[in-house]
Write a structure and sequence with these properties.
mainly alpha, 6-stranded mixed sheet, 21 helices, 8 strands, 63% helix
Length: 564
């Protein structure tokens, strides 16, 4: 079994490496590149995710030092991300194996490896946030077992790094403190909370002091105001978000209720078929058939979702249900197992809520941030299955767990995100798949249209745009990989892939006149500007009346405006 599922994990990792480059990943690479070129945090960069830039920037610097360009860097970063994810999964396995049987620990680690918060392989902020939450959990659990203070300090540092990556994760400190207070030994509860809290305070205060000394309060406040002004999607009031999330939750609950109604009927039929053969408590047998039926229904729904290639994040519905079942069956756990389950779920759910506080993503899309809680929910479900007198039902429930990993593997094979930015995922078994043969995405597998766009765009940029130019790549959804085609500099306050072009951009150029673009590269197809740009009144006014290009050149996918 271990050989088979390890092969599945390895194959999944290879697929992740060579496919699935998304616009958000391009944004992370463009963000890291401008940091490496010398753009100063909070001053030249009004990017909402800049505090997560360091990991990608480090590996991109290593890559460029070795190969003198960014050609093929996407695959390199994917490989780094998969290696990191593998190491974190292995750390989770080793942590759980100390108290749980090996198959259960392996299953939890495998589930964790197969799920990425935003379907990315690259080590960007969403992946880093989840990885750090695992280290926070592992160190905290190690402390509760051994009471060695350095584990608690390491857990607090991991939490602080998670907050740096995604600032709203500061709320995770609250459930972390409650877990420590609940499970630390009686004589050390207060001391344990103090050690954790003081470490968080010292690290947090040190980072804040560094920022205040380095940049000053006015600069940091100005950055926040500027960032919000050009990216209003991250400044939606929590009340509005909460109402939207309630609507999303309502839809999720309706789908779960429908699935459970089908499962209840199926469970009742199975129970009636085996009622006479059963010995012992019949209520428990009915509950077992219901749980089994519900898993089969949700897995069937997952399979349909994969084959339909639509609403690719709908599998988050399974996550919500599995976690709910885990909490419902929690009383089957021993005290030590409850410690594992409560600690991991508290940190995972808090991280999920922290994500909802800042993100502009729907509730269902953010569900994969619950991956650690999903993995640990296998523990109470397994313990419940072990109490069943009917071993065949127990085996079927366990088979459902392994079938879930197989479906995740099928999803990995069948559905990949293409570089075209289409909402539907692109199948690697499709007949129009192709290989990108130049530029930062060289070696990536995608569809013919995306490969052709990358090839042509790379050649056009190199031919039309002089090295060292300050460029602004503009479109509705921006393919920011162009910033890495050559030694170009980002001329805009943000290189985010879904920009909002507003008059506040002019404030940036007034504050940073040396950033005024030399070349504005607009999304176009065969000489026709994209509708998103044509319909943006400020952008068109700025282009024609303020920038006043001396000339322009039409390419296949872009129109290049030149200042001189």
């Amino acid at each position: 079994m271990y050989i088979i599922f390890n092969c599945i994990l390895i194959l999944s990792g290879l697929i992740w490496i060579f496919t699935n480059l998304s616009f958000d990943e391009e944004y992370q690479m463009a963000l890291a590149n401008r940091f490496l070129q010398g753009d100063e945090l909070f001053v030249h960069m009004w990017e909402p995710h800049q505090t997560s830039v360091f990991v990608c920037a480090f590996f991109m610097a290593v890559y460029k030092a070795l190969f003198k360009s960014y050609t093929g860097v996407a695959i390199f970063l994917h490989a780094i991300g998969i290696v990191f994810r593998g190491l974190v999964s292995f750390a989770l396995f080793m942590t759980l194996k100390k108290e749980l049987e090996k198959p259960l620990a392996f299953f939890a680690a495998a589930v964790f490896f197969m799920i990425s918060p935003k379907d990315f392989a690259i080590p960007e902020y969403s992946n880093i946030q989840v990885w750090l939450s695992v280290f926070c959990f592992a160190f905290m659990l190690s402390y509760l077992r051994s009471e060695k203070a350095w584990y608690l300090v390491a857990s607090a540092v991991a939490l602080c790094l998670e907050v740096i990556t995604y600032p709203s994760c500061i709320i995770t400190a609250v459930p972390a403190v409650f877990v420590i207070a609940a499970y630390a030994s009686k004589g050390k509860k207060i001391k344990s909370v103090l050690v954790f809290g003081v470490t968080c305070f010292v690290v947090g205060a040190g980072v804040l002091l560094y920022l205040l000394i380095g940049y000053g309060f006015d600069t940091l406040l100005g950055f926040y105001q500027n960032m919000v002004s050009i990216d209003p999607s991250h400044n939606v009031s929590f009340a509005v978000k909460f109402l939207n999330y309630l609507k999303d939750v309502g839809r999720v609950l309706i789908m779960i209720a429908a699935a459970l109604a089908i499962a209840l009927l199926a469970g009742f039929i199975l129970f009636k078929c085996f009622e006479k053969k059963a010995s012992g408590k019949k209520k428990k047998l009915f509950a077992a058939f219901f749980v089994l039926s519900s898993f089969v229904v949700f897995l069937a729904g997952f399979l349909i979702n994969i084959l339909s290639a639509e609403n690719r994040c709908a599998y988050s519905i399974i996550f919500v249900y599995v976690i709910a079942v885990g909490f419902f069956l929690r009383f089957y756990l021993s005290k030590e197992e409850k410690r594992i389950f409560d600690c991991g779920c508290a940190l995972s759910i808090a991280g999920f809520v922290a994500t909802l506080m800042l993100t502009n993503l729907p509730f269902i899309v953010s569900g994969a941030y619950l991956v650690l809680a999903v993995a640990l929910s296998a523990l109470p479900i397994k313990r419940f299955a072990q109490t069943l007198e009917t071993k065949s039902v127990e085996k079927c429930i366990l088979i459902c767990g392994w079938a879930f990993i197989c479906l995740l593997f099928l999803r990995c094979i069948y559905l990949r995100t293409s570089l075209t930015g289409r909402e539907q995922l692109c199948s690697i078994v499709d007949t129009d798949m192709s290989l990108i043969r130049s530029g930062p995405a060289k070696g990536m597998i995608t569809d013919d249209a995306a490969a052709r766009k990358q090839q042509i765009s790379y050649e056009e940029f190199k031919a039309f745009v002089p090295k060292g130019s300050k460029i602004w790549i503009a479109d509705g959804v921006v393919d920011t990989l162009g910033y890495l085609y050559d030694d170009y500099y980002v001329a805009t306050p943000s290189s985010i892939s879904d920009p909002k072009y507003l008059p506040d951009y002019e404030n940036y150029w007034r504050e940073n006149p040396d950033k005024t673009p030399d070349v504005i590269i607009c999304g176009a197809y065969n000489g026709e500007l994209s509708y998103d740009l044509l319909s943006n009144e400020w952008f068109m006014y700025y282009l024609e009346n303020v920038y006043k290009p001396a000339r322009y050149t039409d390419g296949v996918f872009w129109r290049y405006y030149f200042k001189e």
